[in-house]
Design goal:
It contains 11 helices and 8 strands. It has 2 domains: about 250 residues, Alpha/Beta hydrolase fold, catalytic domain (Rossmann fold), CATH 3.40.50.1820; about 70 residues, no CATH class.
């Protein structure tokens, strides 16, 4: 007997299929709404004022091999969404690595985790150390180059999950994920089926310069407010760990990283840290299907720092819309929606997931 795939397709059916594919492609071409006229509005409004889907989480704590811990937030079905019941045990698992000072409460986590739930997938946000609301134990935090942490998390999740595993990262989280993918190459394919990196600072020096001048300092001050609070808490745990006066005096990420982030994580200084964390040279080595999504007007990374098609492997799909800001990608009339990002990411990941 012939399966439906063996039967000839009518020209009408073929035209309908092509039209649907074109429509889906056009829908996923990002266009910023007119009421968000520039890169800063496209970044700040989604982050601070967007209506976020309600997502419930269950927290789990893992002890790390070095004597610390991380907290993971698992999506819990709410009984009212498109997929109100618990996912099948072998449904895909979507893992999201958050950005600098982000968490499962970030706006992008809300839309992406709601999408995982509505797709009938499992979803989890592993928090980088100190980002879950509880200070971690060791004299360290997290950083842009911490691919060993991502490796440990993903392999443990892979070992425990029956279905396929996919991963995404936003900003810092995307950078660490890309670094892991580029370092592990073919080996990463045994852990994740596909990946997505969103608004990733793939050239950390260029991103650092952007955040150290002009309006970029507004974002820097926001980051430093919580980073300095955490640094003070860490000094209470470990007096003399670094120079408190120099930490408090820092006004740029370069200065803060030179005092805190770099020395705490084995780097000589900020330049050594930022060079080590830059993932652009690793993009040709990625073997897992990976979407790299960067708006060309991202205030955290100038467009000239973005890679071109010939600078990445065949496994990498670049999407560089003219607008979108940093992890913004808001659409629609006021007050706007933030679900374009989840539709773009899950539309990509779905194509690379084997549902058996």
């Amino acid at each position: 007997m012939s399966s439906t795939h063996d039967k000839p397709v009518s020209s009408g059916t073929a035209q309908t299929t092509v039209a649907a594919a074109v429509e889906a492609t056009v829908e996923l071409l990002y266009r910023a709404p007119l009421w968000l006229p520039n890169r800063h509005a496209q970044t700040i409004v989604p982050s601070l004022f967007a209506r976020r889907p309600a997502v419930s989480f269950r927290r789990e704590r893992w002890d790390t091999p070095d004597g610390d811990f991380i907290d993971l937030d698992w999506v819990v079905p709410d009984g009212q969404s498109a997929a109100p019941h618990a996912p099948a045990v072998d449904a895909p698992l979507f893992v999201l690595f958050h950005g600098l000072e982000g968490s499962s409460g970030s706006h992008y986590a809300a839309t992406l985790m709601a999408a995982a739930r509505d797709y009938g997938w499992h979803g989890v946000v592993p928090h980088f150390r100190s980002c879950s609301g509880t200070m971690n134990r060791l004299p360290r935090f997290y950083h842009l180059a911490d691919s060993n942490e991502v490796d440990w998390v993903l392999r443990r999740l892979r070992a425990a999950h029956r279905g396929p595993v996919v991963a995404a990262g936003v900003s810092l989280g995307g950078n660490v994920l890309l670094r892991w993918l580029g370092e592990r190459r073919e080996d990463a394919a045994s852990v994740v089926a596909a990946a997505a990196a969103i608004s990733t600072p793939i050239d950390v020096h260029a991103g650092g310069r952007a955040l150290s001048q002009g309006f970029g300092l507004v974002y820097t001050r926001s980051f430093l407010k919580t980073l300095k609070q955490k640094a003070d808490q860490k000094l209470a745990q470990f007096p003399g760990l670094f120079d408190r006066n120099a930490m408090l005096a820092s006004r740029t990420m370069y200065e803060f990283d030179n005092v805190v982030t770099a020395p705490l994580h084995g780097f000589r200084d900020t330049d050594h840290y930022w060079s080590s964390a830059t993932t652009r040279p690793l993009l040709p080595h990625i073997q897992v299907p990976t979407l790299v999504l960067n708006a060309r007007n991202d205030p955290f990374l100038p467009a000239e720092a973005l890679p071109s098609r010939h600078e990445v492997s065949a496994a990498v799909e670049l999407d560089q819309p003219r607008h979108g800001g940093h992890a913004g990608f808001m659409t629609g009339p006021f007050p706007g929606r933030i679900d374009w990002l989840s539709r773009r990411v899950f539309g990509y990941l779905e194509r690379h997931v084997d549902h058996g």
